[in-house]
Amino acid sequence: MTELQPAPQETPETALHRGRLGILGIVFFVVAAAAPLVGMTGAVPVAIVLGNGAAAPGAYVVVGIVLLLFSVGYAAMATKVTNVGAFFAFVGRGLGIIPGVGSAFVSLVAYLAVQLAVFGFFGGVVTAQMADSFDIHWSWWVWTLIAWAVVTGLSALSVDIGAKVLGVLMGIELLSLIITAFAVLISSDKPEGIDLGASFAFSNIFVGGLGSTAGIALAFAFASYIGFEATAIYGEESKEPHKTVPRATYLAVITITVIFGFTAFAIVTGLGSSAVVDKTVELSTVDKVPLANPANVLFSVADTYVGGWMKELMSWLVISSLFAGLLAFQNSAARYFYAMGRAGVLPSSLDRVNGRGAPWTSTVVTSVISLAVILTFAITGRDPVLNLFYWFSGLAVIAIVFVEILVSVAVVAFFSRHRGEASVWASVFAPLLSIGGLLVGLWLLMSRFALLAGTVKDGVDPTTQPWGLNATGWTLVLAPFVLFVVGTIVGKLRLSSENEDAVADLVS
Known about the structure:
Blueprint: H1 23-34, H2 36-50, H3 56-78, H4 87-95, H5 97-134, H6 140-157, H7 159-186, H8 196-200, H9 202-205, H10 213-224, H11 241-271, H12 276-284, H13 295-305, H14 308-342, H15 360-379, H16 384-417, H17 424-447, H18 449-453, H19 471-493
Helix pairs in contact: 1-7, 1-11, 1-14, 2-10, 2-11, 2-13, 2-14, 3-10, 3-11, 3-16, 3-17, 4-5, 4-16, 5-6, 5-14, 5-15, 5-16, 5-19, 6-14, 6-15, 7-11, 7-14, 10-17, 12-13, 13-14, 14-15, 16-17, 16-19
């Protein structure tokens, strides 16, 4: 690896507050980023209708297994490197500082993009909810700016305060999903009983092949998991990071997989496996447009099997779930800015912290960028969901999966130079298997991007024809790879001012 300059000594103005987060605190952040309730109300109905029908729960389990394989190597690397740069540091240690900087650029844009996407979705959902419940008709950007201000304030206070807020929100959200799922499964009024084969049989999960219905379902499943990989970002602020981060990673992946798979299976069971596609279309149709209101699918199941109070509660919990995701991604993006400032890739002022040990300067920069994009979309009259949410969420998930592939390659490279420091399973076989699964996932996300992001070329049916992208779609799809190239160039040019903080194990 390229030799770097010595790292400057940390000062109270540049050091993150150590030891504030335990395993559960980190898990709260990453599960919040995955926003299970939002996935259940948004992605799962689409995966059912356009994908593999009753086997959509199985698609989520398959993706969970792929990401669990990724987590094996990721966790092994986390025992060797504790660094807020996470992907940045891991790729840097395994493949060298220059590709590490390239991955940092991609990761940073990914977290900025997904936060912007959630800001858009939040604005759209709150606007509709406040209009229906209280007859308040404010523009989407008003609600978004309110959320922006609160998120900026909380992220600047302290990471443990954010974790406590997320903990409360996530607890209520997960409890509502668990109650609804169990209510369906224990009910004697299920239309077709419990059919595990319909949802989890291999032949049903992969029906139609990767180029058709199965591929669509798997693409939406991959998109739903974004955020789980952020455990290592909080390593420097955690207790016993070399133990906490690996355990938190496994717990986060398993939790998200169980919640997605279990709840999606409950939806299928509640509607009836043979009729689930037709029922999902019926419940989600608004003004003869199918899937115009996908949230109504879960809400209807909750209403039927639990009661109207659960439907009402969930309609508000979607908002809290989105807010939790905003806070989680704000923290992720700010810490990448912090890591890149500390490494000398971006201005060094980005590594400043406030009296509470929170990365203050990076938080401000993250918020200013978000504010600028929100205002741009508001001024130009863009739709918060169709444009801001779909475009940026699509960009983010491709970027994250791309960097996950780089991390898996870096794990293999790192442990090939440090033989015996991790098992063969953790250092070779699991990362190689994850590379294969993630490459398939990346291809699915790119080929089905028109469907995911709504960037369809005129005259193309995205449900049957992959790669039918318009100019905006191609720009978003290729952006992560262009950013990686730009990042490597910047890394090369800035190498003289680099320091070992970029990839160092900062907490032994």
